[in-house]
């Protein structure tokens, strides 16, 4: 029997999210010959993004384009998505493990009476079973899980599965009408985009992160400058957030976000267990700390014992030289 | 206002994980209330202070979960319900079915939970419950203002802030920054001992094992490969900076 797999693609900051292409790649790891793939994209003025998505999908792209869908609202997005899913009757629905995916996937799972495996970092097979790797305790341990039956709901952690490549023939785009309803129980009144133009922490390839040693809100300035040169994002430890130096949305750790960038630069972070859980899967870790005994040096590939306020601006200068 | 807080007991975040006989060892582990659920309990207390009502804290888990529920009572919740039955699988599908079955027989205006649990961390259960109860939800909130049957909330969406208007009854999940959770006071701890504490089984809430059979299974459990300490760079700050950029280009080949 052939199966249908649906990827729910995502728009952020006017572009198609990288994790949506990673979710498409995840489907190619799951599907067998003869199975079909569809992608859904929801938003406002997304024609170019639907076209771009279609280049990667061997199947159909369902595009739902309406001014009322510009901002994510669980009610509207769920109603759009569930009506598409009821036609496609998929074996699995795959999301990115993002602010939208984390919210929408459990709604779909509950609606379909389906199991869900969240935050998947790798997919393997063993006999006829597909095994989904995911972190526990923010990455202090990993479990492999399998589904007992279908339908299945999966969310994919950004930066772990390589993105899909351009398909041999682009997908057909099917436009789906959206008719606004007046009886919504929740309305998004306003969105303040503090992060516009910046890379999201979970998708960033390079993260410059500050801890207690940064000492103040102003202390994050040199870190921001370094991140800008590297086209990276700025993160923080719990100590820095609790001290009020920065917003909680920047926190990396077991409380906060778990990140897996290519380069993680820890500045003035001692390396509490709960912080290390959130970043120890990074490809290369660099630690800058005054205290040579700081636990962070035990996991760092490259360590600099020194004052971050001296070292970080010098690094910014050096990177600027080679990256220009 | 009837407020329900869904919560979980988890390992303290400073605990290291040890695998023994294919499972996570709980030998001499310190348990705490899931940190995100502390914000949920605190918010329930603040809403009750403003609007009156009753706070019931609710959990599905083993007997030890009672400690976390008692902590919530000591903080200021009024009643606790522990659904404790070995027949309930830890699968999110199963747990959410159990919670929703219980809640569907209650009268509620506000249901709050943590954004996710710091152990299994799937972040599914609360949102599944809102869907099963057919009530609207906002996840990852950092502000909650209630006026009559309307709430205005702020939602953290990867650093962006969304303002959402939502009608009650509704479900919310708490993000860091929502409030500053209190510590239980000594009189609070004494009072908690006398507050109603109900323990229910699967049969008590009218479900059978076939209703909640797990949809996913764990196949294996491993620890991540240990990282080795790398090299400390030598020289003064200028030399270290040059060396690091050089190593990232030549050795790590990332720049």
Automatic annotation (TrEMBL), chain A:
SMART domains: ETF
One annotated GO biological process: fatty acid beta-oxidation using acyl-CoA dehydrogenase
Alphabetical list of PROSITE patterns matching this protein: ETF_ALPHA
GO MF term (any one): electron transfer activity
Cofactor section: FAD
Database matches in InterPro entries: DHS-like_NAD/FAD-binding_dom, ETF_a/b_N, ETF_a/FixB, ETF_alpha_N, ETF_asu_C, ETF_asu_C_CS, Rossmann-like_a/b/a_fold
Signal sequence, start to end: none
Keyword match Flavoprotein: yes
Presence of keyword Repeat: no
Binding locations of FAD: 212, 237-238, 251-255, 268-275, 289
Keywords per UniProt: Electron transport, FAD, Flavoprotein, Transport
Gene3D superfamilies linked: HUPs (3.40.50.620), TPP-binding domain (3.40.50.1220)
A matching Pfam family: ETF_alpha
Domain of life of the source: Bacteria
Cofactor note: Binds 1 FAD per dimer.
Domain Electron transfer flavoprotein alpha/beta-subunit N-terminal: 4-191
Family: Belongs to the ETF alpha-subunit/FixB family.
Protein name (database record): Electron transfer flavoprotein
Biological classification of the source: Bacteria, Bacillati, Bacillota, Bacilli, Bacillales
TrEMBL record, chain B:
Record keywords: Electron transport, Transport
Signal peptide (UniProt feature, chain positions): none
Gene3D superfamilies (alphabetical): HUPs
Residue ranges of domain Electron transfer flavoprotein alpha/beta-subunit N-terminal in the record: 21-209
SUPFAM superfamilies from the UniProt entry: Adenine nucleotide alpha hydrolases-like
GO CC list: cytosol
MF GO annotations: electron transfer activity
InterPro entries (alphabetical): ETF_a/b_N (IPR014730), ETF_b (IPR012255), ETF_beta_N (IPR033948), Rossmann-like_a/b/a_fold (IPR014729)
Coiled-coil regions listed: none
Pfam families: ETF (PF01012)
Subunit field text: Heterodimer of an alpha and a beta subunit.
Family note: Belongs to the ETF beta-subunit/FixA family.
Name the record gives this protein: Electron transfer flavoprotein subunit beta
Organism: Paenibacillus pini JCM 16418
